Amino acid sequence: METAGWSFAAIPPKTARDKIMSAASYLFCNHGFSATGIDAILDRAGTAKATLYHHFRSKEELIAAVLEAEGETWRAWFFGQLAARGGPERTRMLAVFDVLEDWFSDPGFYGCPFINAVAEFDTGNDAVRQAAERHKDHLLTWLKGQAVALGVPDVAETARSFAVLIDGAIVAAQHTRDPSFARTARRMAEIHLDDVLKHRLRA
Amino acid sequence: METAGWSFAAIPPKTARDKIMSAASYLFCNHGFSATGIDAILDRAGTAKATLYHHFRSKEELIAAVLEAEGETWRAWFFGQLAARGGPERTRMLAVFDVLEDWFSDPGFYGCPFINAVAEFDTGNDAVRQAAERHKDHLLTWLKGQAVALGVPDVAETARSFAVLIDGAIVAAQHTRDPSFARTARRMAEIHLDDVLKHRLRA
DNA sequence: GAAAGACCGGACAAATCTGTCTTGTTTTTT
DNA sequence: AAAAAACAAGACAGATTTGTCCGGTCTTTC
């Protein structure tokens, strides 16, 4: 059904644990975490309830496992796509928005699981918030590395700017189902880099 | 407790209907829509269950009413803040990010209710998605009006760019609890305006 | 070949969910 | 003052929730 490769739900499941993870990923991400019941996951996975509670102590632990797996799968796909693209440093850094557009264009695109999870649980759920923070740290680290390679004067601020653009593009694309918001974000990233690198030449 | 004025939950409730709306706003926005039960709303509101179902046919209708009221209250606050700020056109358009920073700085800030609602329900819930679209249309209309007043060549693209920056700043501030992402977004808005207006001078 | 673990199917418990209904009191309107 | 609407308090129904447990089957591993 889905062959995009950025969702854990798309990985062909072999063991019962994988079947549960795959079904839970799909349902959590498409219908929400609270709204998805254990029974619905079991139905979709075709497994027994005892099997689920053998592998996961609670629904909360299953949610954490799904978020972890979704993040890992997505990052492997995302950074893999980035690594496959060549060109000068600047082009490779801006390529994040080209890869984002591919992501947005998938018919099964449901936004960022971490953004969605924080939005749903929000106040008081530190486990979810910390998982989202870890995920975003991976991205920020990569962005900082690229910024350093580019010779950007304020590395942290450039990484923050890219993070804002990425989050904004994700949310806008999720709401409108219009993948071209990735290009809108890309244009702003371009002029941001022009701006900070121009200032560097002046100094 | 909360005096910020941008949340419906902060309006002093008088009638039982308002008490229900206020309690529902707070709980929905802070603990999630699905996770908040009718009984929890009743407890917080101090009203009877029959009263709730006298005013709202179902929980779904209550959610819709809360979203509508939250949107209306927020827009009244937001555009009121913007209207109170003077200065040249450019400054007033960029002031959206100053007002956003005030919003982010409130201890009770829980993100945008519409972003959170779409994130939670996502697939298949057109009512929520359309409510979010209506809300965002208000903002886009205002942004386009400002862009026209500024003499921006591509009004639609500038409005889209601002929308991406606004959504991105909201999400980043919600995740990190760091209001200064509004300033990061503002800087990119500045250079975006510089860029499009410079091109206009060239032509 | 035997032991161990993974898995199925479903009953079961206890709590919680949304929504209805009844009875009676308070408030507002006419 | 009388009629009408709003509200409180809570019982109740029916469905659904998470999580446990039991008995039997299959597959892997040593």
Task: Please tell me about this protein's structure.
Two copies of one chain form a homodimer. With 203 residues, chain A is mainly alpha-helical. Chain A folds into two domains: 1-67, Homeodomain-like (Arc Repressor Mutant, subunit A); 85-203, Tetracycline Repressor, domain 2. The first copy, chain A, contains nine helices and no strands. In chain A, helix 4 crosses helix 5, helix 6 packs antiparallel against helix 7 and helix 8 (155-176) runs antiparallel to helix 9 (181-202). The longest helix of chain A has 26 residues, at 59-84. The relative contact order of chain A is 0.11. The mean pLDDT of chain A is 93. Chain A binds chain B through residues 29-32, 34-35, 110-111, 115-116, 118-124, 129, 132-133, 136, 157, 160-161, 163-172, 174-176, 181, 184-185, 187-188, 191-192, 195, and chain B through 29-32, 34-35, 110-111, 115-116, 118-124, 129, 132-133, 136, 157, 160-161, 163-172, 174-176, 181, 184-185, 187-188, 191-192, 195. Chain A binds a DNA duplex (30 and 30 nucleotides) through helix 3.
